[in-house]
Amino acid sequence: MLLLKYINMKLKNRLLFFLILLLFAANLILLALFNKEKSKTASFSNFIAEANKNLNIISNSLAQRNFKKAHFSLIQTQKNLEDIVPLFKPPLPEKMVALSIPAGEVPYPFLYTNENTYLLLCQKTSKTLSLFRFAQGKFSLIKTYPCIIGMNDADKKEIGDYATPEGVYFLLNFIPGKEMDEKYGYGAFILNYPNLLDKKEKKKGSGIWLHGHKPTTNLNELLVTEGCVVISNDSLKELANFIKPSVTPMVIVDEIEFRTQKSQEEISGELQSFLNSWKEAWESLNTDKYLSFYAPEFVNSEGMNYETFKRYKKKVNRNKKFIRLKIKQEVILIPQKYQGKIAFLKFNQSYYSNNFTSDNQKLLYLKREKRGWQIIGESAL
């Protein structure tokens, strides 16, 4: 927990500690005013009174260097905070409403995948997780499940902010529940948060998972998470039949937007053409042409910026007699919050040259510039 972290730092900065505590109180005051429910506000008033009492004890204990007593009072304040927070979060609706898709339109983030590929879409406002399948050129809704998200409704930015990130992610490996704490229930799929785009934007935190819940509780009892997406154990068990690690994407949005099938196909065509041209440029051994596909702000998962990457590629290509690439299992997605300016191209890349071979899952991050699409990031899954 964030508050306990400051105790573990031996309380070197009392002013910062008090500020953090007051910020927690301020956030809850805003929630109380927003909800305008007397019973909740009364409960909150009791919490504030108790917090002030503990704050005085902590202050006096710190002055006397009695860290043990201060620690005890802080734990009590934390416990009271955990009791009050769920009051300010609405429970799941008793009857879940399925995702409604306008005729002739598709979810904005979905552009293209290979035939019979499944995708997940989490909508935070409705607390739903929807399973889609791409077949015969169309994205079809298969099923919608209720879910629980982070206590903080905003996009994730910091460690311990209790927010569920918004963007395009991929489900990596699955950890069975028997290998973890019982609170994860059936098990957990690990998301690749923070991805390279998140890191470029200085977002922090980790450990964002799609998981089940403690078998002795039900989904409605949970109310909120620390940032993960949680569904019922039965739902997760069902979804596990459709999820392929490092292949299945999970898009998380605040509230879903839709676009016409035609407009999505046009953007998909642009990006597929870009990918083919990038592949051909790489195979041509014309390094300058190949590098023209990369933006000056480019950075890869190994920390190379554009200039370092440029020098590296020129050095490597001097010893190449030929390069052959095979690309398959393509997924093309466009994060909703960037309004068409950012795209994700994910595929399996088989690389073969006279002195090196490799096979890996590659993820390209593209940005729409005046001159067209350019690569701003590159990583492997």
The CATH homology group name of the largest domain:
L,D-transpeptidase catalytic domain-like
- For the report, how would you describe the main beta sheet? 8 strands, mixed
Protein structure class: alpha+beta
Indicate the CATH class of the largest domain: Mainly Beta
How helical, in percent, are the residues? Answer: 25-40%
What is the name of the CATH topology of the largest domain?
A: L,D-transpeptidase catalytic domain-like
CATH architecture of the largest domain: Beta Barrel
The total strand number stands at 16
The poorly predicted ranges are 1-16, 28-41, 86-95
- Taking all Cα atoms into account, the compactness measure Rg is 24 Å
Strand order of the largest sheet: 5-4-3-10-6-7-8-9
* Amino- and carboxy-terminal Cα gap: 30 Å
How many independent structural domains?
3
Overall mean pLDDT: 84
State which percent range the strand residues make up: 25-35%
What is the chain-wise order of helices and strands? Answer: HHHHEEEEEEEHEHEHEEHHEHEEEE
Main attributes of the structure:
16 strands, disordered N terminus, single chain, globular, L,D-transpeptidase catalytic domain-like, 10 helices, alpha+beta, 381 residues
Please explain how this structure is put together.
A hairpin with a 2-residue loop joins strand 4 and strand 5. The chain contains 10 helices and 16 strands. It has helices at residues 2-8, 14-35, 38-63, 67-84, 196-200, 219-222, 233-239, 261-283, 287-291, 306-317, and strands spanning 105-107, 110-113, 117-123, 128-135, 138-146, 167-176, 187-191, 209-211, 229-230, 249-253, 258-260, 294-300, 323-333, 342-353, 357-369, 372-380. The two termini are 30 Å apart. The chain folds into 3 domains: 2-88, no CATH class; 105-258, L,D-transpeptidase catalytic domain-like, CATH 2.40.440.10; 260-380, Nuclear Transport Factor 2, Chain: A (Roll). With 381 residues, the chain is an alpha+beta fold. An 8-stranded mixed beta sheet has the order 5-4-3-10-6-7-8-9, covered by helices on one side. Helix 2 (14-35) packs antiparallel against helix 3 and helix 3 packs antiparallel against helix 4 (67-84).
